[in-house]
Predict the structure.
Amino acid sequence: MSDVTLKDVAVRAGVHVATASRALDPNRRQLVNTETRLRIESVAEELGYRINVLARSLRKGSTGMIGAVVADLGNPFLPPMLRGLEEVLGPRGYLIAVSETHENPETFHRVCEQMIARRVDGIVISAAHVDDDVFISTLEESVPVVLAVRRVTGGGHHTVTHDDVLGARQLIGHLVDLGHRKLAQLQGPQDVSSFAGRTLGFRRVIAESGYTEVGSDDAAMEPTTAEGRRLTAALLIDEAQRPTAIFAHNDSMAVGALQALADAGLSCPGDVSVVGYNDAPLTAHLAPPLTTVRLPSSALGRQVAATMLSQLDAHDNPPTTVQLEPELVIRTSSAAPGHASIATQVLG
């Protein structure tokens, strides 16, 4: 029945029209007691009543849309984060519009500007580079913005991220404890804060321990499997300088490292241990299962959504930074140099 009105629902449910309106509004339903709300919802469903979203948005000056700008939808970390966003924002009546930038600054600017032109209520950004501070500040003049995973220089923005320095320290400390003295890292692009933090954590442990970093400062153009394979192949050219352990800045590059070792006729962890970062889906099922740091992407998405809602409810909230703790996940891709791998375990 497409011509059913809110008044029809209210009459059938025996409530005032205003009560019916509140009960069917995701942002105000908590104002109606549970028994009454459930009765109104049941009547609305029985009559085939559908909320006029366009009319509601015009009345409120809100579209009910939240933009999510990501770098690469092929990154296995992102789907759980987006799901976490939806788990919190969906029940509040928000629709999430996702767009990717492919790490292209011009695309990033264009996507964000188009989202504002389409009147999104807020933007979640997981594609920022460290020098995007001024642009982010410009966006914040129009809509609430929350940075997810990646920071920008300057601070002063609502941010939900992960302690990448500590996560890298945990991984490299684990390798040092196993007896590794010649270590290499496969660096992600250093204009991305998460990769810069992992570089810093790696080098702090190396400096404190007095051991050797093998390789050059060459960083991946993109944090992909192909780049991990390329960088690892370069590390293996000089057998005398070959590392006994490799820290890849994400799990995709770690997979590339495993491929390069196989190409060279080397084994993991027998010849070279490999560790990654993120604990992406299926890393536990690689051969060998990958030691990594678990980045709680679903929990991060939920925290980002909660931060966005706090801005939408009170636009003058001061900027906050939430930093989630890393969790070291030890599997069989890491072992003492030249020895069999240790048993799988999880260390928080």
Observations:
- The first strand starts at residue 65 and ends at 70.
- Residues 164-295+328-347 form a domain with the Rossmann fold fold (CATH 3.40.50.2300).
- Residues 340-348 have pLDDT under 50 and may be disordered.
